[in-house]
């Protein structure tokens, strides 16, 4: 049964079609919205932990009460199956939110730090401050998950936010812009819809933090705008994530895991394996297994499968169709412009300077490059931008260690794809061209929290006597005393230092007694 007719696939994204009419009026609205959010933040509304918990629980309610509407929007945008929508979007969100609700009060507690000799009688702690009003800009490929995961941490940390979901996933964006105001506080939390014009306008404003997920090119625009106001940013970007396959693996399992990582969401996943590095022998094994695996997963005709997504818009469809046309197809290669269908495709005889190796593929096309050894693979990876993810398939610990020690990337899964992104509280983010900063679980809370160092000193006059060695006039004697007392000597404590510590501790105990017994002691 063909269920992928245009009639059931409502995302007519022939071009970017913003939901908000981009008149001057909507431009002005961005400023007004920021002003409302800022006033709410400055009133201190988001400071009490009870308020934050209420909002997080309202979000939980929103997830539970609107599952079907969310599944429908994802189907309309990307022809996403219910299972993929649940596992890759809603379940991740629900689990992350549960983790946040259970733990954020602990995360929000001040963190007490160890004391040194200088601060022995003081309080040393880090106070967790929200940044203020944060801007969250997200892409279209996982339009629920990528909008709402950062929202959890932003709320838990006590921020207000302005969220701009991607106009490309127009059905999910429309749903979010309807639901969020129904469940969350209307002054603190805002959804702004619209295209690049609106993003540009938002980026002119002075937010307190910008959390951006999208392409490296747009990331540069965001970073440049943030620099003008010195706004801190997290940039969750993309890139080409390699997968190395050794000759020693179980090829049935390896091929399944590689193809799954590439075919989920039709390859429109930031951490999808972008290309394979392996020997000719391994390539033959992968190609031999792929055919039967695809047949098992999607039947004789992938296009009729309810489980295979579509390409989000015409621009991306034509980009991917051209990549196939320019390559040597070993499997698949099927395309259908009417449905924006690109079938799972394996490409061989790939050269490093082929067009398919220049930019992130972001579609169900998997090129295979041949390398002589894992050293070659490491050199190849290191000759390019640092990837968001790296996949290594081998049973040899020595080879796994080589990849871990000799390459740099956002995150690694060994012997599978995508899965490191699902580990709760793992920092998820890139490095270099693939991003700045990280999030997920507790890390999202940290991302949206300014850690304010606080030292509370005593004004006790006796302690001031000890402090006095730092004041002028600077004498040799005082300098030596300071050196002995404060210079770090490594693990071996010098005799001089021990003498000083004994003298200091005795003095400190004496001072403590004075404080405890009160001033009367001196009144004799
Ligand atoms: P995109 O960069 O085109 O768009 C993302 C957002 O940026 C949109 O809201 C868009 O309006 C805005 N934008 C785009 N160009 C802009 C410009 N010139 N000026 C101002 N704003 C601009 O990204 P996309 O196509 O929506 O998503 C795909 C990209 O996102 C891929 O590169 C993918 O790897 C990356 N991505 C990364 C992650 C991650 O977690 N690291 C997750 C998903 C997607």
Automatic annotation (TrEMBL):
Low complexity compositional bias, start-end: 1-17
Region of interest: Disordered: 1-22
One GO term (biological process): aldehyde metabolic process
Keywords on record: Membrane, NAD, Oxidoreductase, Transmembrane, Transmembrane helix
Presence of the UniProt keyword Transit peptide in the record: no
Recorded family membership: Belongs to the aldehyde dehydrogenase family.
Protein name: Aldehyde dehydrogenase
Lineage start: Eukaryota, Metazoa, Ecdysozoa, Arthropoda, Hexapoda
Gene: LOC108737842
